[in-house]
Amino acid sequence: MRNKNSLGSSNWLENFFLTRGVSRNKLKQYIFVYVSILPIFCIYLVLRIFPIVSNFVYSFFRAEIGNPTAHFVGFQNFIDLFRDQLFLLSLKNTTIFALFVTFFSVIISLGVALLLSRKTKYGPFMETIYFLPVITPMVPVAVVWKWIYDPTYGLLNYILSFFNIDSVAWLVYPKTALIAIIIMSIWKVVGYNMIILLVGIRDIPEIYLEAAQIDGATRTQVLHRIIMPLLRPIMLFVFVISTINSYNVFTQVFIMTTGSQGAPAGAVRTLVYDIYENGFRYFKTGYAASEAIILFLIILALTVLQFRVSKEED
Amino acid sequence: MNKDKMTVGRIISVALLFLGALIMILPFLWMLSTSLKPTSQILNWPPKLIPETFTLQHYFTVFQTVPFGRFYINSICMATLSTLAILLTSVLAGYVFAKFNFPGKNFLFMAILATAMVPFETYMIPLYLSMVKFHWVNTFMGLVAPYLVMSYGIFFMRQNIKATIPNELMDAARIDGLGEFGIFYKVVLPLMTGSAGALAIFAFMQTWAAFIWPLIITSSKELWTTELGLGMFQFRFSVDMGPINAGSIISIFPVLLVFLFFRRNIMSSMTLSGMKD
Question: Which CATH number describes the domain made up of B62-273?
């Protein structure tokens, strides 16, 4: 492997490698690799890895202004969290939000995906329509939904008036506000789940479906015995991704419910909202960091669950 | 009998499909309609989807009473810089991880991928404190910093480069005397423009939609993005629905335009990523 031409090189670093059986070609490649990858890794260190690690450290401290590691308090932040009514409320709200949004959006998406899996003229057009809310940024979407939910002039109350339902100030009361935000969020993610499921359904080999038809299976039987079992891993993926994304809910809550009361508390308190408020309004860095750890652990558990189950499937 | 039932079921389900599509599109139509109505008609009861008279007044108001033009420029600069940085780092790192073996490769790759599993919201506080140390709070650099790299982008480019670029091609270029950087620039880059384009669209849309970080890191209006400006503006002018909806239309316009042009690309690349805002 040793390259004879290079023996006369005066570069000690080059010699170091060359005398250890690394060819000149390989050396050039290493130089390219490290010159490329190390700056990128440094960006990761500063912008991702260091903050992620710091967050763990901060969660064990009580901060002072300008010093996040002022007093070591052990697990005290976590103990306090589980006595904090606002945190418990956020955890409850976020969990309800995540479960409802995930469950209903996946059910609706599955229905839409099954209907669109057949080749039709309107298929691609429908896919685009259902996908529109997904690519639209959250703020304008939240703004228009807030307007739709408006108690006096809102479109929703107008539509409901046809069914003799009295006007509701949707975004003012915690219960209706949570429902309103769940509905809006389902609307936002249905198209996303639909596309993933649609890809999954179309990947099912045509032969299976044809064979079932020849054997005289009804459409319901094909759905239950062939499509659904084969779709299981993708369904699981969609469930987990949707739950993870839902746990991070913030923007629509901030836009739609904080202004309606004018109060900082808001009608719907979610985990990220609580982290934001503790971290950036009250500057309780360590406390907010420990909340972030709880959120991280929930998401980690979901991710691990997905890996476990998808491995078993294989 | 059975056949009949199925067609009836089919008709009902297709009707539901179209009803669903109507619900999907209605908020957009309502947004557009409100933005084009004169103020006097906006609060009319019953509400009408098609305005009696059309006006572009609110679109002018948005730019006159709010520095919306400034927000727009900020968003474009932020999203463009972020897209370029994500493209460069993703293609380069993707290439390195796809085509080279070197000490520390697995460690570096796993470290980068692992960060993708941690949601941004869980480490934004330490990141903010780092920005305080760098004196990047309320600066453009601070605004754009978290959006310079994307783990999914690296992963995506790695998969694509593995699939499209044969090792023989690189060896041939080496024999022809091209250096490693030359191979990347002259051989790899031109072959990867397709998937890099898909990634660029995805990166641009993701940064454009950013909300919580701009909310935290900026304190002066001069740095607000379209999303943040719109979000803040709607609190203050909560009765003035015309300009707010006009602002919404303006803010989704570039995204919709890009989407309608690159529909296929976007839908397939977003489904693989498992992330969205």
Answer: 1.10.3720.10
